[in-house]
Amino acid sequence: MTTTLIIIAFIVAVPLLYLATLDGEFKVRRSLVIASDPKTVFDKVRDFRSWRDWSPWLMHEPDTALTYSDTPDQEDGWYTWDGKIVGAGKLTHVQFTSNEMIEQRIEFKRPFKSVSKVWWEFERTDNGTTRVHWNMAGKMPFLFRFMAKKMPNYISKDYDTGLYMLRGELETDAEVPRISFEGPAEVPSQTALSIHFEGHLEELKKAMMDGFPRLGAYVDENDFSATGYPFTIYHKVDLRKMHFNCDMALPVPKETISSEFEVKSFLGGHYYKTTLQGSYDFLELAWYQAYAHLQMQKIKPQHKGASLEVYENDPATVNHSNEIITSIYIPIK
């Protein structure tokens, strides 16, 4: 019995000792230039009632319950959120410095309890625009200290998304990522003309700019009929090295024969669909938010399956990049 207790104590003690060696502190700073004067941006950010329109978290759960203090745009003003998937917490204005800075306190109540410092800086540029800095500094709770190193990357993606959405509220014709989470979807099997690619992200971008026009021109020149939207299917992705193994593809009838491109069959399956309306430059953020949404919903992705990026309209035919529509399909269990 004594030996068993010693073993149990050892099993419990080892991870606790490891956590004790971590300080758990993290800091994030993200910036974006917005074509508005500092006062306009300052007033927008300080009014918590405007956050519903550009919050990178509330888009995951638009019906999140929000409550506000009597003066949510003044010092000591606050708002709270309480949602099923985004958790619960409170954000309070601590101090304003003219139109230059807003200091805030954020209190997370769910999924875990913690308190962090948030602050905004509004820097006037030489051409009359405003460089906005969104900052956060905090310390993870003891049992979550192991997450501290990853927190800056997670928060940075959210802050980037929020800053672009904030810019969209203040700038006419600004490029803005509009991300919507459509839910589970069945993708049918497809036959497609394809171009295989393996390499770094920057090389992939160049390959796509060359590859998809070639596929489209080939279909037109040979009087083939495309049976669906062009897509990229990602077989393997190494995000640390930003290395991609994928196929650029254009769906065609099963009986299609080609001497220039490989004709491949791609299996369908069960996916979760997320849609980005906006520039392809926002695709990295859209992929991050798609996976974040699955985690919030406690939906497990099928890591061995291939993910899809489907291009639902031609950028050359739209009036603004905000009209470009791309759907992301992540295989789920």
Topology:
Elements lengths: L1 H19 L4 E10 L3 H9 L18 E4 L9 E6 L3 E11 L3 E10 L3 E11 L5 E10 L11 H20 L7 E10 L2 E11 H21 L9 E8 L4 E9 L10 E5 L2 E9 L5 H15 L9 E5 L13 E7 L2
Antiparallel strand pairs: 1-7, 2-3, 3-4, 4-5, 5-6, 6-7, 8-13, 9-11, 9-12, 10-11, 10-14, 13-15, 14-15
Entry summary:
This protein has 333 residues and is of the alpha+beta class. It has helices at 2-20, 38-46, 151-170, 201-221, 283-297; strands spanning 25-34, 65-68, 78-83, 87-97, 101-110, 114-124, 130-139, 178-187, 190-200, 231-238, 243-251, 262-266, 269-277, 307-311, 325-331. It is built from 5 helices and 15 strands.
The number of helical runs is 5
Q: Domain count, please report it.
A: 2
Tell the overall outline.
elongated
Largest sheet report: 8 strands, antiparallel
Structural class: alpha+beta
Termini separation = 42 Å
Low-pLDDT residue intervals, each spanning 5 or more residues = 5-23, 141-146
In CATH, the topology of the largest domain is named Alpha-D-Glucose-1,6-Bisphosphate, Chain A, domain 4
Average pLDDT confidence is 89
Percentage of residues in strands: 35-45%
Portion of residues in helices? 25-40%
Order of helices and strands: HEHEEEEEEHEEHEEEEHEE
Can you identify the CATH superfamily of the largest domain?
START domain
Looking at the overall shape, the CATH architecture of the largest domain is 2-Layer Sandwich
The strand line-up of the biggest sheet is: 8-13-15-14-10-11-9-12
Gyration radius, to the nearest Å? Answer: 24 Å
CATH class of the largest domain: Alpha Beta
